[in-house]
Design goal:
Layout (H helix, E strand, L loop, with lengths): L2 E6 L3 E2 L12 H14 L5 E5 L4 E5 L1 H9 L4 E8 L2 H9 L12 H12 L9 H8 L3 H15 L6 E6 L2 E6 L29 E2 L8 E6 L7 E6 L12 E5 L2 E5 L3
Parallel strand pairs: 2-4, 3-5
Antiparallel strand pairs: 1-5, 3-4, 6-7, 8-9, 9-10, 11-12
Helix pairs in contact: 1-2, 3-4, 4-6, 5-6
Length: 255
C-alpha cells in the first residue's frame, strides 16, 4: 500500500546502494530545475519505509534539484519494505518511457548489483533480466556476459526452472571438462585387445550342460556364453553351439 508524504530531505536515505545511475545527468537536472520553478513542485520521488528509515530508490535527480533550490521538503510516495526491497526496486526503475532513459553503464550497474548479491546471484539469467527490465535474447546475453566477467562464486549454484519447477543446479563444471568435485576427468585407459582365436571350455562329464567363454570377434571385450550338449546319436560334442554376439546369432564349429 502506497501513501504520499511530504518528507524532509534529510529523512531520505541514499546510502543503501539504491542509486543505479552511474552519474547524474546535468542536462536533465537543468530541465527539472526549470520545471520546479514553473510548477512549484515536481513529481513525487519513491521510497520504502522499514519503520525506521526511508530508503530512496527512485528520484535522485529530483532530490538534487530540491536540494539545490533550497527546499526543505519533497513529496514522496512511500511503500513498506526493507533496504533490500529498495535495492531490487531500484534495479528495475526508469524503464518506462516517461523516465530518463538509462545508458549502458546504468544497466550494467543494476545487473552487477544483483549478481554481486549472494542470494540474487543464484537467480537464472531470465529472472535477472526481469528484475532489471531487460527483454529478449539480447538482454539474456548481456546478463550472461556480465556474470562470466564477474565470475561470482555464488554463480556456481544457480536456480534453474524446467516445466514450472525450480531447483538448484551446480554449473561449476559446465564447459570446463571437470568432474563434480572440480578435478579434471581422468583420460580413459586403452583396454588390451582380447585373443579371438581361442574358445575356452570348462570340461564337465558327458550329458551335462557345459559353459564356454567365447571372445566375440566382432565386439572387442564382449564375452559370449555358449552352450554345448553331448548328442549320443551323432557322437558330436560341441557342434551346433550358438553364441549371441551383438544381437545376432553365429554358429560355432568345433571338432
Amino acid at each position: 500500500m502506497k501513501s504520499c508524504l511530504m518528507l524532509r530531505l534529510e529523512q531520505l536515505r541514499t546510502d543503501g546502494g539504491t542509486q543505479m545511475r552511474a552519474t547524474l545527468d546535468g542536462d536533465h537536472l537543468e530541465r527539472l530545475a526549470l520545471a520546479l520553478d514553473a510548477a512549484g513542485e515536481l513529481e513525487a520521488v519513491d521510497a520504502v519505509h522499514d519503520r525506521t528509515d526511508y530508503w530512496l530508490w527512485n528520484g535522485f535527480h529530483r532530490l538534487m534539484v530540491y536540494s539545490d533550490a533550497g527546499r526543505k521538503k519533497i513529496p514522496a510516495r512511500i511503500r513498506p519494505g526493507t533496504q533490500r526491497v529498495a535495492v531490487l526496486l531500484a534495479a528495475g526503475a526508469n524503464t518506462h518511457r516517461a523516465a530518463l532513459a538509462r545508458n549502458a553503464e546504468d544497466i550494467r550497474r543494476a545487473v552487477e548489483t544483483l549478481l554481486r548479491d549472494p542470494e540474487w546471484a543464484r537467480w537464472p539469467d531470465t529472472k535477472i533480466c526481469e528484475a532489471v527490465g531487460l527483454k529478449g535474447g539480447w538482454g539474456r546475453l548481456q546478463v550472461a556476459d556480465i556474470r562470466r566477467e564477474l565470475s561470482c562464486p555464488s554463480g556456481k549454484m544457480r536456480t534453474v526452472e524446467r516445466s514450472g519447477v525450480s531447483y538448484p543446479m551446480n554449473t561449476q563444471s559446465i564447459g570446463r571438462g571437470e568432474g563434480v568435485s572440480g578435478q579434471a576427468r581422468a583420460t580413459p585407459t586403452a583396454r588390451p585387445m582380447p585373443n579371438h582365436d581361442r574358445v575356452t571350455a570348462a570340461p564337465e562329464p558327458a550329458g551335462v550342460w557345459q559353459r564356454f567363454q567365447v571372445p566375440a570377434a566382432s565386439v572387442p571385450g564382449l564375452i559370449a556364453v555358449a552352450e554345448a550338449h553331448d548328442c549320443d546319436s551323432e557322437k558330436i560334442c560341441c557342434r551346433g553351439t550358438v553364441a549371441c554376439i551383438g544381437g545376432g546369432l553365429r554358429r560355432l564349429g568345433r571338432g
